[in-house]
Amino acid sequence: MLNCLHTEKPDSVSIILVNHSSPVVEGREYQLQCDVHNVAPVQFLQLRWYRGQTEVYTHSFSELLPATPVQVSSMLTIVPNRVENGAEYRCEAELHLGPEGPESPPTVQSELLSIAVQYPPDFHSPEEETLEIREGSEVLLNCTAEGNPPPVYFWTSPDLQEKPNDQPVLADASLGPGVYTCTASNILGKKSKQFVIRHKSKGERD
Prior knowledge:
It holds the Pfam family Ig_2. GO terms for molecular function: integrin binding. InterPro entries: ICAM_VCAM (IPR047012), Ig-like_dom (IPR007110), Ig-like_dom_sf (IPR036179), Ig-like_fold (IPR013783), Ig_C1-set (IPR003597), Ig_sub (IPR003599), Ig_sub2 (IPR003598). This is Ig-like domain-containing protein. With 206 residues, the protein is mainly beta. The protein folds into 2 domains: 2-115, Immunoglobulin-like; 120-198, Immunoglobulin-like (Sandwich). It is 0% helix and 51% strand. It has no helices and 17 strands. The chain has strands spanning 12-17, 24-25, 30-39, 45-51, 54-60, 70-78, 87-95, 107-109, 113-115, 117-123, 129-133, 139-142, 145-148, 152-156, 169-172, 178-186, 189-199. Strands 4, 5, 7, 8 and 9 form a 5-stranded antiparallel sheet that branches. Strand 4 (45-51) and strand 5 (54-60) form a beta hairpin. The chain is rod-shaped, with a radius of gyration of 28 Å. It starts with 11 loop residues before the first strand and ends in a 7-residue tail after the last strand. The model has no long low-confidence stretch (mean pLDDT 87).
């Protein structure tokens, strides 16, 4: 009978990133650990893992039999990607005591664990761009990339030998015809994109 059991909801529930600290790197495997402290009877415990509001895993302990309060742990493997940068994980311990138990199971939640994800740069528009403009018209070259840490930029072209620029956008009426290469880089990698500028002849229409 349930009323003969000693029931005790957890003193606390804690969550950690095992052997690491945030930030993590996109595509690599990491372990999260959730510890439930001083719970009984543990065989009625269900531990739910959440990323944001989405439940991602449920761990039951029905194979354990001790009736006295114990500490148990659950592991969750994650392989984060850039979309999950800043995602918050938590775990929630519930004692499901059956029909003779309380209508609302005793529940204890962990604090939130926020995971920052680092990833190499990726251009918003990676394809090579060709611009045909009239001489003297302002040229706008945009090679904005997304990355974490935020990328730094380096432009190369014969026309830029004396014009260093570490910004993602070049806007200049003095840029001549030629190939302009923009490289975006951070600690995880780099990518390059080319822009080809051609001048229209006087007889060409816009």
